[in-house]
Amino acid sequence: MLIQVIHCHPLADSFNHALFRTVVKGLARNGHDVIATDLYREGFQPALTVAERRSYMDNDYDGGDVASYIDALKKVDGIVFCFPHWWFAMPAMLKGYVDRVWGPGVAFVYDREDGHLVPNLGHIKLFGVVTSYGSPQGVVRLFAGDADRTAMMRGLRSMCARDAHSFYLVLYGMDGSTPQTRQAFLEKVQAKVAKI
Ligand SMILES: Cc1cc2nc3c(=O)[nH]c(=O)nc-3n(C[C@H](O)[C@H](O)[C@H](O)COP(=O)(O)O)c2cc1C
Question: Are 130 and 23 contacting, i.e. CB atoms less than 8 angstroms apart?
Answer without folding.
Answer: yes
